[in-house]
Amino acid sequence: MLGDPAAARNNAEWCDIVCASHGLVGRFDADAWSVPRRSPPWYPDAVTLRPGVAAEAVLDRIDAGPGASVKDSFADLDLRPYGFRVLFTARWIHRPPVAAPAPPSGAADGRPPLAPVTTPDRLAVWAAAHGGGELFRPALLGDPRVTVLAAWTAGGAVAGGAVLNRSGPVTGVSNVFASGADAADVWAAVHAARPGEPLVGYESGDDLTAAVRAGFTTGGPLRVWVRD
Q1: CA gap 171, 149 in Å, rounded
Q2: pTM assigned to the model
Q3: What is the per-residue pLDDT for 191?
Q4: Strand bridging mode 46-48 / 217-227
Q5: What is d(CA 13, CA 146) in angstroms, rounded to the nearest whole number?
Q6: Could you give the CA distance from residue 146 to residue 172 in angstroms, rounded to a whole number?
């Protein structure tokens, strides 16, 4: 059975991979993952891995000054006394594997085809369409845990994409986006690409709605704190 702790751990491992691609060495223990220096844009400085972690235990391991951010994986931290505010809230999402293989992504059901991005040049095109730009570095392509997926148009543009990262029993889905495609179709194509794997992630707002439309179910809440 999928659970929020597995999703939180998977997400922390993805954050660690991204930070490593920027030369930042992360640390894991039973309570949290963290980096001692400021993480890249859009990525937290710490991710809690279990409920009930003390705020001080998280903040003591990061640079807690202006610009610091913490992913509160179980929405049970109160960082307001330390000068933080809630940047956003979201829900963990899960989708179990299916027994029979789904049709290939891009089949005649209208889903955009998804193919792995394998070269730095194509990653740059993907990253520009995503909006992350230089956040996504070529080192990601050499990590066996990571698969960057793109839906390419006939003209060579990116219609949508996602990132998968495998950790333990689950595969994380993140950075899902659609440009000229229905986001729910991209989510469905991700599942079709990995039908036999338990998928996890988190989303909010319209992105959460798209994931649920594609067959994902919601788990518990999380929130991200930031210090201005």
Answers
A1: 13
A2: 0.93
A3: 92
A4: unpaired
A5: 11
A6: 9
